[in-house]
Design goal:
The complex is a heterodimer of chains A (267) and B (400). Chain A is α+β, with helices and mostly antiparallel strands and 267 residues long. Chain A contains seven helices and twelve strands. Chain A has helices at 2-17, 96-103, 155-171, 173-181, 193-215, 229-235, 252-260, and strands spanning 23-24, 29-42, 50-59, 71-75, 80-86, 115-123, 128-135, 138-143, 146-152, 219-220, 222-224, 247-248. A six-stranded mixed beta sheet of chain A has the order 3-9-6-5-4-10, with no helix packed on it. The longest helix of chain A is centred in the last third of the chain and has 23 residues, at 193-215. Chain A is extended. By secondary structure, chain B is an alpha+beta fold. The longest helix of chain B is centred in the middle third of the chain and has 27 residues, at 178-204. Chain B contains eleven helices and 13 strands. In chain B, the strands form four sheets. In chain B, strands 6-13-10-9-8 form a five-stranded mixed beta sheet. In chain B, strands 3-5-4 form a three-stranded antiparallel beta sheet. Chain B has helices spanning 7-13, 53-59, 91-95, 111-115, 117-125, 178-204, 208-213, 251-275, 290-295, 323-326, 396-399; strands at residues 66-68, 74-76, 101-102, 133-135, 170-173, 236-241, 247-248, 333-341, 346-350, 353-359, 365-373, 379-385, 388-394. Helix content of chain B is 26%, strand content 17%. The chains are: A alpha+beta (267), B alpha+beta (400). Chains A and B meet through strand 2, strand 3, strand 7, strand 8 and strand 10 of A and strand 6, strand 7, strand 8, strand 9 and strand 11 of B. Strand 11 of chain A pairs parallel with strand 12 of chain B.
């Protein structure tokens, strides 16, 4: 009996292994066979809030928790983000003397340069990116809002330079008084009214935007790292809750047109 | 011919009489040759009419290089050999295969080659090789070891008994020989193309995407396991697609959601109506019971019975699905299937669009997925590091 059962088991296993796999003809490869099928779901719950942040200065081996900012700020209207990443001043690789010199750009009380400020730079959208997670053997996709890079901010160097310049100015106060009486030649250019207006608009368009960016105050940004309860609850929204099939409104021709653009406007 | 007196006697007797000469210009001499009025061999100028140049030149016809022109003047025409017709080297000649017929005692090549047969053996059969080979006509793979025992007559180790003497012609095959170079080039090109195609095939089927999704991807026999890889649910991925098709809810799903929303509103409204007490007037003048006051019983209304639930609909909710809810914003559901094939290819079909999924380039820097809430509370939630990026390329064969 045991032998018969073993034989039956072997037959069943052989049958399972020799069971023909479904053909991949529906996927454009009729000579191939399907080994695994994963249903794909789409959700928009976090599509307006999802950002891909790139850290070009940090290697990809950084584990979650190693790159946590001490302070984070955001300008909500323009969407600019700043993060202060702490530096290990106790590390043997840290140059204390140089850190004290550069720390003057942060404060005047002899503070060491113990933070590296990362400022966000938006990357122009060139393609569509979707965040994907696998849940219970299903692939869930969420469109992303934008891609942003975090690059170091060197404003502390500007402040150090300003302090040096201010210190040298105090020494040259006497010379400055003499220089004021000196006549200076001024170059005068005459423009038409239209050119003047156009030039003013052009300068104002960029400068005005920059000025508006500078004028917007920073708001405190609360940061929750991966693994925290808040982040875990938000990450669950990456999984679609509805199981129904969605209807695709785009035909293959329309999809191709969307990719390459309308080559023949008369059509 | 008149007798010519001896020069000594004639010179003494006769003085030259220039005036009697006809055509004093005869001394000037016409033509290039000897002009007229030349003194005779006796040294004196004869009085009679000088012979014409023609007559004189005919007498002097034996002088080489001298010829008579039409008017009797002598023209010197040196005997110059005919001009060589040099043949300019044309490009066609240079392009022709340089198949030289080498003759002479050096036809068999240097003595070192003739003495070492092994070095020649390898060169004999290879056509179109980097070097050149000296091949006796009609023989390939010359084995010159036998040349050592050749007759010493030639002095170069050439075996004349093989049907060729030192003067036999030898066809030298070089790289410039089109007959062999072209074939060799074609062979090299074809071999290179085949190897390049094989390499491309290996690169394409690198099982990068398949090995990420499935447990095993055997590159040797091309089999992929159907089981999903371990730890796949803990990983964060990014898919890049050129365009995302437009999806919408099915009509029945839309109706179902609308009905559910209306029920929710009605339920919330009914709950709030039930939770409210019949008359709750906190400002009313409630006269306390003296007996309860003496006992210290709390006479304030119990507000704990009020049920304040979170699903209370907004004040402006009219029970209908807005545009965002009906279309894309909340249009979440199944859009297609991702398949891992036995060959290692990974394809995804969303709607009617077939996409080929391939692994993206390895990114050396860190990438994090964030959820930013900039509405009321400015909060950033780090959802995880991006482990892998995939590129989705439309299958144009199925689209076109």
């Amino acid at each position: 009996m045991d032998i018969n059962m073993d034989i039956n088991m072997d037959v069943k296993m052989e049958a399972a292994s020799t069971k023909p796999l479904p053909s991949a003809a529906a996927y454009g490869l009729p000579d191939d066979e399907i080994m695994a099928e994963i249903p794909v779901f789409l959700t928009h719950k976090l599509s307006k809030n999802l950002h891909l942040l790139q850290y070009p200065q940090s290697p990809n081996q950084v584990k979650p928790g190693q790159l946590v900012p001490s302070v984070a700020r955001i300008k909500p209207i323009h969407g600019q983000i700043e993060m202060d990443m702490p530096l290990d001043v106790q590390s043997p690789m840290y140059n204390t003397e140089r850190g004290r010199e550069l720390g003057a750009g942060l404060s005047d009380n002899g503070r060491l340069l113990d933070i590296q400020t990362l400022v966000s730079v938006d990357i122009p959208k060139s393609s569509n990116y979707l965040a994907a997670v696998v849940h219970s053997g299903e692939l869930h996709l969420t469109p992303m809002e934008k891609v942003t890079q975090l690059r170091p901010s060197l404003k502390y160097l500007d402040k150090v330079a300003e302090k040096i310049k201010a210190a040298s100015k105090l020494d040259d106060d006497e010379d400055d008084e003499e220089k004021e009486a000196k006549a200076q030649t001024v170059q005068v250019t005459v423009r038409t009214a239209e050119a003047e207006e156009a030039l003013r608009q052009q300068q104002n368009s960029i400068a005005f935007m920059q000025q508006r960016l500078e004028e917007e105050p920073w708001s405190k940004l609360s940061y929750f790292d991966v693994g925290t309860e808040e982040s875990t609850s938000v990450s669950q929204r990456l999984v679609a809750s509805n199981r129904e099939d969605l209807l695709c409104k785009s035909t293959p021709d329309e999809y191709l047109t969307a990719i390459i653009g309308n080559m023949n406007p008369n059509v | 011919m008149p007798d010519i007196p001896p020069p000594s006697e004639a010179a003494a007797d006769q003085k030259p009489q220039l005036g009697s000469m006809r055509g004093g210009s005869s001394l000037r001499g016409r033509g290039r040759g000897r002009g007229g009025g030349l003194p005779s061999a006796s040294g004196s100028i004869p009085n009679e009419r000088l012979h014409s140049i023609r007559e004189r030149t005919t007498a002097a016809a034996g002088v080489p290089g001298a010829s008579v022109s039409g008017r009797g003047k002598m023209v010197f025409t040196p005997n110059v050999p005919a001009r060589r017709n040099k043949k300019e080297p044309s490009a066609l000649l240079l392009a022709k295969p340089v198949v030289e017929a080498i003759t002479g005692p050096f036809a068999q090549g240097p003595a070192s080659l003739s003495s070492g047969g092994s070095s020649r053996r390898g060169m004999g059969g290879g056509g179109g090789g980097s070097g050149s080979a000296l091949l006796p006509p009609g023989v390939s793979g010359v084995d010159m070891t036998s040349a050592a025992g050749a007759k010493p007559e030639s002095g170069f180790g050439v075996d004349d008994s093989r049907g060729g003497n030192s003067d036999s012609q030898v066809v030298m095959v070089t790289d410039h020989n089109d007959a062999t170079a072209v074939d060799a080039l074609e062979v090299q090109t074809e071999e290179m193309a085949i190897s390049a195609a094989e390499e491309m095939g290996r690169l394409k089927l690198d099982f990068g995407a398949a090995s990420f999704f499935t447990a095993q991807a055997k590159a040797e026999n091309g089999d992929c396991s159907g089981e999903l890889a371990e730890g796949l649910e803990d990983k964060m991925m990014v898919f890049q697609v050129p365009e995302l098709p437009i999806f919408e809810l099915a009509p029945e799903v839309l109706q179902r959601r609308l009905t559910a929303k209306q029920r929710k509103i009605a339920r919330a409204a009914g709950r709030s109506a039930e939770a409210k007490p019949s008359v709750v007037d906190l400002d009313a003048d409630v006269k306390p019971d003296i007996a309860k006051l003496e006992l210290g019983v709390d006479i304030k209304p119990d507000l704990s019975k009020l049920d304040i639930s979170d699903d209370t609909p907004d004040a402006d909710d009219n029970g209908e699905l807005d545009e965002g809810e009906a279309n894309g914003d909340l249009a979440d559901g199944r859009i297609g299937t991702l398949v891992v094939l036995k060959s290692g290819a990974v394809r995804m079909k969303i709607g009617d669009i077939l996409l080929d999924v391939s692994r993206g380039a390895n990114c050396q820097f860190m990438r994090g997925l964030f959820a930013l809430d900039t509405s009321a509370t400015h909060t950033a939630f780090m959802l995880g590091n991006v482990d892998q990026q995939f590129m989705c390329t439309p299958d144009l064969d199925s689209i076109i």
